[in-house]
């Protein structure tokens, strides 16, 4: 098993990649790998995995993840066999792996080993000395180079990515990064000794840009440039580092840099390795024919310090053409046109191509057009000819058009003659700035090549797609099309590629959400993206993205483009920028107070410039969010506010534009607060209707903050916004926040003195719940408000009284007897029926099911939820239907009604997914785990657990951690992992929300630790008795486990008690709500009867248990029952 943490955490086994589960489980493995085999306490692991803020009940969840990792890493480990990779060791856990099976250890060992050999060579190389005696020959150095290549290739991204910025991970990242730089320097030194000067120069250009104070890297870069025949560039690099050291540190260059400078000035031969022994000499291509320069400097800019991302297909197509050129496999020269908007990466792609071509021995001739008006004619061709050892033809005395044509022919012939002798890549960059003569030469080149022309020529041209080419450039585009040129129109890179570039520039891994935001913000334009990444390196990414001002470099580029437009167009764009990234013609015309035809006329230049694009009929969009931001930043705030007012008024009567209206009123300034918060509330309701809960919450937060500043806002106004907020939080599964909102709503209702508002506030935390509210506690604030409301209501049938009784029954679940709650619930349901209100009846049935939840009334709950399901369908109540289906599935599961269970699971999960009901998704997912596990469908279990883990990241529902821990334990239990379940239980508090003493005792017994079980029973008898005495949703499982414990320990009193409690539940499942099911209750009745000496009775129960398992189609539960029968002899 090999573990990789130099990037996202991965594992590879003999059969290939291993599924490690959800992000938290991968983070746990990363945390263990961080400690390199040392034992780590559970508290430390929790802090690492949850970034210092572990949730309540984390111990059980952590143990569940440990069990999951053990199954993933050792799938062939037999039941109850000790783990050998992820082991339990005081004070917690340790990851036991050979060093070469952990990529960080492998990387460190490889780098350290290589550095021992390379260090003396690099010292001699950079100090101008002879290589030490016994230095490796070329073959040995090639092996070292390959070793360092392999080590550096282990890096796949940010190490320990799942651990975020926790200090321990950050410190280890810094140490590993230092080793990576050292390895890069060592590889560069070996590359220089092997004569790989051009490649090394390109690599070190990137390295020295990022690590600017590493003198060794600068020295090697200068040597590599000199070795490439680029002495002038080498001296320029040495001047650059000298200035840098002086400015940053006030230091002179060290001895290595001084020695290299002397060597370059003297044009000394760069040291190289001794040849390899005969037979080991690598095959190299024959030298090019005489006259073809091979040592001239590469004529294209150095690579950026971040890798090319998102252009794999394009680069593959281009390198394929290079391969054809090298092999002379084509029938004629090849042409390529790279087009796209500014900053999209045309030049970068061409440079990557040129780098590849240079490595293949291709001559590179690069001509870049100048943006400056004063640039000489034929400027790009002058640099091309210089590279080819020629120069522009001199002007003839008869300086006419014929002479010019002869000069153009001469340039073309020089290119073709060079390509006759050796492969040639000709790049003409930024043709949108080219002078007409330069374009004429290129067109002549396309016309001059014919079938018999050299096939070893590849011509790549780049230009911007906006404005659309005209004149000579249009003629070139047409000529290239006739030659069937490969046309690559570059678009923005993907979110995945965005994350890759950002991580390399900012040296921080963005979240998926951040990457998506950046992709949308920049449209995947690499230039814009890099500017954000550079700023984020020293600042907060979220703040940068939220800031309407683009980065300075982006702003400057866009401002220059905007300045070329007429004033009327610029004014119109400023108005459009207030409307948003996308705008429509009628709204823009109305807000700008311009006729629609005139508006179109003014937009045309912006469209031609590529700043604005049509987005359908009479719809337009700024080509980039940053274009819009640049325009908007030029509009003073006071004028901007007035445009917002006009926009809000223009859109106010248009359906479906509520969010736009709200944003405009919110931005219109303090004079318009009274219109801002109602607009935000209306926008939130529209967003809620389409399940856009994040957007709805944002609008409601705006509404509340605007109300705070609006003196005309009343308590009743605030209550309605709070009620909407509670509804959205409920739908989004954020119940902990919902309780806080309910408390504030109760205060506001009391302030207003409004009974109806008080009733609504008191019902907020129990309405829509699927589990009992409060997480094991009673909310005194809510209960008090409900009791006060009930006292103030008149006697008699009243919908309000019905709702208060339902809420009170639910909120007092953990503070009253089942009889008290059932009395309230039964009266509420009866009252709803007398009032003949179908919606109220539906609400009463659902909430009564939860308030009265216990094993003894499972049949009644199935009847109520069946009625509720039919009623919800009749009313078209989607939320009510999902709730009814979920609760009906659970009741059917308790009763062993498999047909109803499966029907409700399938439909309930589909409906919950459709309306994004996260509470129901969590409820039904945890219920499905136990049944899938009992049926041995562990692939399905793994999928379900992954979905639950994802849900746990976005919801804050009391009981979530306990539910997921229970689901994880069910996975382990039905795979024979009682020891794993026990390990989880031993970390949990015995007096928590979910009583853990019954399962703890049972797992101690099942794993053979009977003495420990007896000691635990003595220590925690009070907790066990409390769990046994309770009558809740958890009781069927608690009583069943008490029976099993009594059987193992021979406790007659406990067995008799358990039998009495379980007798009325015969035929049902031993379950704890929607989270755990451990088999048929009849098997536990058999255990209790056997313990009290009633073996005939025990046998009948055991036989019935096996029959039930067969009816329920749960083979693993049946097998367990058969094993227990054999163990007990019944």
Automatic annotation (TrEMBL):
Coiled coil regions in record: none
InterPro entries listed in its UniProt record: AAA_16, AfsR-DnrI-RedD_regulator, BTAD, OmpR/PhoB-type_DNA-bd, P-loop_NTPase, Sig_transdc_resp-reg_C-effctor, TPR-like_helical_dom_sf, WH-like_DNA-bd_sf
Protein name as annotated: DNA-binding SARP family transcriptional activator
MF annotations from Gene Ontology: DNA binding
Feature: DNA-binding region: 1-97
Keyword DNA-binding attributed: yes
Gene Ontology process terms (BP): phosphorelay signal transduction system; regulation of DNA-templated transcription
Highest taxon listed in the record's lineage: Bacteria
Keywords recorded for this protein, A-Z: DNA-binding, Transcription, Transcription regulation
């Amino acid at each position: 098993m090999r573990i990789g943490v130099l990037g996202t955490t991965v594992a590879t086994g003999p059969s290939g990649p291993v599924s490690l589960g959800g992000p938290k489980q991968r983070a746990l493995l990363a945390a263990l790998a961080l400690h390199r085999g040392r034992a780590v306490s559970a508290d430390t692991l929790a802090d690492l995995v949850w970034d210092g803020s572990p949730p309540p009940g984390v111990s059980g969840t952590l143990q569940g993840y440990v069990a999951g990792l053990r199954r993933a890493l050792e799938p062939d480990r037999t039941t109850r066999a000790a783990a050998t990779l992820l082991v339990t060791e005081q004070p917690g856990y340790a990851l036991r792996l050979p060093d070469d099976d952990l990529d960080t250890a492998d990387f460190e060992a490889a780098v350290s080993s290589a550095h021992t050999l390379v260090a003396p060579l690099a010292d001699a190389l950079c100090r101008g000395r002879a290589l030490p005696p016994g230095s490796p020959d070329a073959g040995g150095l090639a092996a070292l180079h390959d070793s360092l290549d392999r080590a550096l290739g282990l890096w796949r991204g940010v190490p320990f990515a799942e651990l975020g910025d926790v200090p321990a991970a950050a410190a280890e990242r810094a140490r590993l990064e230092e080793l990576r730089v050292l390895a890069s320097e060592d590889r560069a030194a070996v590359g220089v000794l092997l004569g790989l000067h051009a490649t090394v120069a390109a690599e070190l250009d990137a390295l020295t840009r990022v690590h600017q104070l590493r003198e060794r890297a600068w020295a090697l870069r200068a040597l590599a440039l000199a070795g490439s025949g680029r002495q002038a560039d080498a001296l320029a690099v040495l001047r650059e580092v000298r200035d840098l050291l002086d400015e940053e540190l006030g230091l002179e260059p060290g001895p290595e840099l001084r020695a290299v400078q002397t060597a370059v000035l003297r044009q000394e031969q760069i040291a190289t390795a001794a040849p390899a022994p005969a037979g080991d000499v690598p095959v190299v291509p024959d030298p090019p024919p005489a006259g073809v320069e091979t040592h001239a400097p590469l004529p294209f800019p150095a690579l950026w310090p971040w890798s090319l991302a998102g252009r794999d297909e394009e680069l593959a197509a281009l390198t394929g053409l290079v391969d054809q050129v090298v092999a002379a496999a084509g029938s004629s020269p090849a042409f390529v046109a790279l087009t796209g908007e500014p900053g999209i990466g045309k030049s970068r792609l061409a440079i990557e191509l040129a780098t590849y071509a240079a490595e293949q021995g291709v001559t590179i001739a690069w001509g870049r057009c100048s943006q400056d008006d004063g640039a000489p004619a034929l400027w790009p061709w002058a640099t091309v000819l210089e590279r080819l050892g020629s120069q522009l033809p001199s002007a003839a005395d008869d300086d006419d058009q014929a002479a010019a044509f002869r000069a153009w022919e001469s340039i073309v012939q020089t290119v073709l003659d060079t390509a006759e002798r050796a492969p040639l890549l000709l790049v003409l960059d930024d043709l949108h700035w080219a002078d007409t003569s330069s374009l004429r030469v290129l067109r002549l080149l396309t016309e001059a090549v014919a079938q018999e022309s050299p096939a070893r020529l590849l011509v790549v041209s780049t230009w911007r797609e906006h404005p659309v080419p005209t004149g000579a450039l249009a003629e070139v585009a047409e000529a290239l099309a006739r030659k069937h040129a490969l046309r690559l129109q570059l678009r923005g890179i993907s979110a995945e590629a965005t994350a890759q570039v950002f991580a390399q520039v900012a040296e921080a891994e963005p979240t998926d959400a951040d990457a998506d935001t950046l992709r949308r913000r920049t449209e995947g334009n690499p230039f814009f993206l890099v500017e954000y990444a550079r700023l984020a390196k020293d600042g907060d990414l979220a703040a940068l993205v939220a800031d309407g001002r683009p980065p300075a470099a982006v702003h400057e580029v866009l401002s220059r483009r905007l300045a070329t437009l007429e004033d009327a167009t610029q004014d119109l764009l400023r108005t459009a920028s207030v409307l948003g990234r996308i705008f429509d013609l009628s709204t823009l015309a109305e807000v700008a107070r311009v006729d629609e035809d005139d508006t179109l006329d003014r937009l045309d230049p912006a469209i031609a410039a590529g700043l604005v694009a049509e987005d359908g009929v009479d719809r337009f969009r700024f080509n980039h969010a940053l274009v819009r931001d640049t325009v908007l930043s030029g509009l003073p705030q006071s004028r901007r506010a007035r445009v917002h007012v006009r926009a809000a008024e223009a859109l106010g009567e248009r359906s479906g534009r509520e969010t736009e209206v709200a944003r405009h009123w919110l931005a219109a300034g303090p004079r318009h607060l009274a219109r801002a918060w109602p607009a935000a509330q209306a926008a939130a309701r529209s967003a809620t209707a389409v399940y856009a809960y994040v957007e709805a919450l944002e609008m409601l937060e705006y509404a509340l903050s605007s109300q705070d500043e609006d003196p005309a806002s009343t308590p009743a106004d605030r209550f309605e916004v709070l009620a909407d907020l509670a509804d959205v939080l409920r739908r989004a599964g954020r119940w902990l926040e919902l309780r806080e909102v309910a408390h504030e709503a109760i205060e506001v209702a009391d302030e207003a003195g409004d009974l109806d508002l008080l009733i609504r506030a008191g019902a907020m935390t129990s309405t829509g719940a699927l589990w009992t509210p409060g997480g094991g506690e009673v909310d005194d604030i809510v209960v008090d408000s409900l009791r006060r409301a009930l006292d103030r209501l008149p006697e008699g049938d009243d919908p309000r009284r019905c709702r208060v009784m339902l809420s009170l029954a639910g909120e007092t679940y953990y503070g009253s007897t089942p009889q008290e709650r059932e009395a309230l619930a039964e009266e509420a349901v009866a009252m709803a029926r007398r009032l003949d209100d179908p919606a109220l009846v539906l609400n009463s049935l659902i909430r009564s099911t939860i308030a009265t939840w216990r094993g003894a009334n499972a049949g009644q709950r199935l009847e109520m939820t069946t009625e509720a399901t039919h009623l919800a369908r009749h009313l078209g109540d989607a939320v009510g239907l999902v709730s009814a289906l979920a609760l009906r599935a659970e009741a059917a599961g308790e009763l062993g009604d498999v047909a109803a269970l499966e029907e409700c699971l399938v439909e309930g999960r589909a409906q919950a997914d459709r309306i994004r009901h996260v509470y129901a998704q969590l409820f039904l997912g945890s219920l499905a785990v136990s049944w899938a596990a009992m049926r041995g469908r562990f692939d399905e279990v793994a999928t379900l657990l992954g979905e639950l883990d994802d849900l746990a990241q976005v919801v804050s529902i009391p009981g979530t951690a306990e539910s997921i821990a229970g689901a994880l334990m069910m996975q382990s239990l039905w795979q024979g992992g009682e020891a794993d379940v026990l390990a989880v239980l031993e970390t949990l508090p015995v007096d928590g929300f979910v009583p853990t003493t019954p399962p703890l005792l049972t797992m101690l017994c099942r794993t053979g630790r009977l003495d420990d079980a007896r000691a635990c029973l003595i220590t925690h008898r009070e907790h066990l008795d409390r769990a046994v005495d309770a009558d809740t949703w958890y009781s069927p499982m608690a009583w069943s486990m008490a029976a099993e414990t009594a059987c193992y320990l021979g406790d007659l009193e406990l067995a008799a008690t358990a039998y009495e409690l379980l007798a009325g539940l015969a035929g049902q499942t031993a379950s704890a709500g929607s989270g755990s099911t451990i088999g048929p209750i009849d098997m536990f009745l058999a255990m209790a009867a056997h313990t009290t000496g009633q073996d005939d009775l025990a046998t009948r129960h055991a036989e019935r248990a096996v029959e039930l398992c067969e009816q329920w189609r749960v083979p693993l539960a049946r097998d367990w029952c058969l094993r227990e029968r054999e163990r007990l002899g019944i």
